Amino acid sequence: MALKRISRYLKGTCTKGLIMRPSKTLQVDCYVDSDFAGLWLYENPQDPTCVRSRTGFLIMIGDCPAVWSSKL
């Protein structure tokens, strides 16, 4: 089932893409970020929203995105 899903995705997006223009120098940059949804220093054990946070990172090689992640 996973292979069928992947093949359908690839078939449906074959005309889509990203334009990447790498720089002439090989440079690796990493950007990170996190957010506590505006609830910093707010704690209430009965409130389920106060324990959620979002974190993410982006690694760029030669000014082109290579790896990224975002998690809740």
Radius of gyration: 19 Å
Output mean pLDDT: 80
- State the total count of DSSP E strands: 3
Helix content: 10-25%
Structural class: alpha+beta
Number of domains: 1
- The general outline is flat
Strand content: 25-35%
Structural features, described:
The structure is a single chain. The protein has 72 residues and is of the alpha+beta class. The chain has one domain. It contains one helix and three strands; from the N terminus they run H-E-E-E. It has one helix at residues 2-12, and strands at residues 28-35, 54-61, 64-71. It has a three-stranded antiparallel β-sheet with strand order 1-2-3, with no helix packed on it. Strand 2 and strand 3 form a beta hairpin. The longest helix is centred in the N-terminal third of the chain and has 11 residues, at 2-12. It is flat, with a radius of gyration of 19 Å. The model has no long low-confidence stretch (mean pLDDT 80).
